[in-house]
Design a protein that fits this description.
The complex is a heterodimer of chains A (204) and B (325). Chain A is of the alpha+beta class. Chain A has helices spanning 25-33, 70-74, 100-104, 140-146, 158-162, 173-187, 198-202, and strands at 11-15, 44-48, 57-61, 80-82, 88-90, 168-172. The radius of gyration of chain B is 24 Å and the shape is elongated.
């Protein structure tokens, strides 16, 4: 099992749609860092209302590492586990690729490579918040199955590290919330209760 | 009076008793499920069905422009109305793991009770073992065997997914899940052919040349409960092959996820429902052909059944003209 040190109380993602410029730096960095197959997009960037002046905005999304993760609730083989710092991970050796987690996920995070015979899907892959998996930390197997384990090395997940406009933030919930509050107040758009997606992922 | 065959004067209720009971139980089940048990937004599901009929499978049932900034973001990124169907899928999944063993146990008790009330098993007394007639053609035997083998495999592998908490996942469970998909796709033509050849009510409205007819369509006629089992096989089999095919075929990538996920949730729900209901009728079919009556299993392999067996247990088959010759 992973022996990562837990440095954070509760890890969360936050993407600021006012700052995201849809450069795709986060998703490309993620794919490169974890050497993902071409059909897997652990992180994606979507632009809403493309071409409509004043209404266009972009957002980078991946697994939100929910508090009461619905994927964990529906997994028939209980392959998910939640770390003390809130990062939701799964065991690919147990996963049977049934894709129930995909149906339950509000954020479309689980990904399934169609690598089996006759187009059957393989085991699930998703954002690990660069925290690896249940294998021995930084082992060859962990790297092969789950990608880099940057958290164990004390580094920020690669997507947030690469974000040029600092739209994508990750870290302890309190720190991220403080940044969010400062940004909302300084933008003069009034106060929102929480960043987008937080209500679904972490409750009200 | 002796020598005069009395004309049976059956009332409507006694004539259609089985259909009325099954229909009533189904109405009760539907009412319980859609108005009491489900946590899905039924109003939304109805609207969604209308949209699907018009070719819109995105799950968006109102104009995009009428959504708020927040809702537009949600619909574009993750698909709309997460709370309408997804919680029901989660609930249905959890309940399947906990309730299905209870449902199957209740069904077992039901069949055991029927068995006791019927005073055990009906068996044919066969004294002339060699006196057999060809009932099933080679084509029919292949279809019947394929249908039996495939359905058993789909049951086992389907259970291995649903009761993954018992298998614990891993290599074998993963193999069973992936072959469940492929064998399920293979069941589509078998289900379709079986549906056609087991349609025994055709005799009421047409009858082409006997020789070809009997090589394709199964002989005999249905008793009411067997007729219900057949139509349940057709209806819920259709739901299963359609939903199963869509689940296997529709693998959207990250870019198209939002447009398809609500439809996939709905389809998975249909698959759950279809598999639970067809189970009951499959068990009933097994009960009526092999448990309550001692079936003649070699007949499915050789296609030949003893005349005495048919006389005593399946006179409807023996009534076929060419068999009486």
């Amino acid at each position: 099992m992973s022996n990562n040190n837990v440095d954070y109380a509760r890890m969360k993602f936050y993407c600021d749609e006012q700052r995201c410029i849809h450069c795709d730096g986060c998703s490309v960095a993620c794919a490169e860092a974890h050497e993902l197959p071409v059909e897997i997009s652990r992180r994606k960037v979507v632009t809403v209302n493309e071409g409509k002046q004043g209404m266009e905005f972009s957002l980078s999304v991946a697994c939100m590492h929910c508090t009461d993760a619905p994927c964990e609730e529906v997994c028939p083989v209980d392959c998910f586990y939640i770390r003390d710092d809130g990062i939701v991970l799964h065991d690919k050796d147990k996963c049977i690729g049934c894709s129930y987690c995909l149906y339950a996920c509000p954020f479309g995070a689980p990904q399934f490579p169609s690598d089996g015979a006759f187009g059957t899907k393989g085991v699930m892959d998703k954002c690990t918040m660069c925290a690896g998996g249940p294998e021995e930390t930084n082992s060859h197997k962990e790297r092969e199955l789950y990608g880099q384990n940057r958290i164990a090395e004390g580094k920020v997940p690669v997507c947030a590290a690469m974000c040029s406009t600092k739209a994508l933030l990750v870290g302890d919930a309190e720190s991220v919330s403080n940044v969010y509050r400062e940004r909302v107040l300084s933008s003069g758009h009034g106060v929102q209760s929480a960043p987008y997606g937080w209500d679904k992922a972490y409750g009200k | 009076m002796v020598g005069i065959k009395r004309m049976e004067n059956k009332s409507f209720v006694s004539e259609y008793k089985v259909y009325l009971i099954i229909g009533f139980l189904f109405a009760l089940l539907t009412y319980w499920y859609f108005w009491l048990a489900t946590i899905a937004d039924i109003g939304y599901v109805y609207q969604f069905l209308l949209q699907i009929a018009q070719g819109n499978i995105t799950g968006l049932v109102v104009p995009y422009e009428s959504l708020t900034h927040h809702e537009q973001m949600e619909a574009t990124l993750f698909g709309s109305n997460y709370n309408a169907i997804a919680p029901e899928v989660i609930r249905a999944f959890e309940e399947r793991q906990h309730l299905l063993p209870i449902v199957f146990a209740v069904e077992l008790v039901l069949f055991a009770t029927m068995f006791i009330i019927a005073k055990g098993r009906k068996q044919a007394t066969i004294t002339r073992e060699e006196d057999k007639v060809q009932v099933y053609s080679l084509f029919q035997r292949i279809v019947l065997m394929l249908n039996i083998i495939i359905m058993i495999y789909l049951f086992i592998t389907g259970f291995s997914i649903t009761f993954g908490n018992w298998t614990g996942g891993g290599e074998i469970a993963r193999f069973m899940r992936s072959t469940h998909e492929i064998v399920g796709v293979g069941w589509i033509p078998v289900w379709l052919i079986m549906t056609i050849i087991a349609f025994k009510d055709h005799k009421h409205f047409s009858r082409p040349s006997m020789k070809v007819w009997n090589k394709i369509f199964l002989r005999g006629s249905y008793k009411p409960m067997n007729r219900i089992n057949y139509y349940a096989y057709v209806a819920f089999g259709f739901l299963l092959v359609l939903s199963g095919f869509i689940i296997w075929w529709m693998s959207p990538d990250a870019a198209t996820h939002a447009e398809t996920i609500q439809f996939k949730r709905f389809i998975l729900f249909i698959h759950f429902m279809g598999s639970a209901i067809i189970s009951f009728f499959t068990f009933e079919t097994i009960y009526s052909y092999f448990v309550s009556v001692k079936g003649y299993i070699p007949g499915i392999i050789t296609g030949k059944l003893p005349v005495e067996y048919l006389e005593q247990l399946r006179p409807d088959v023996l009534e076929e003209e060419d068999l009486r010759k």
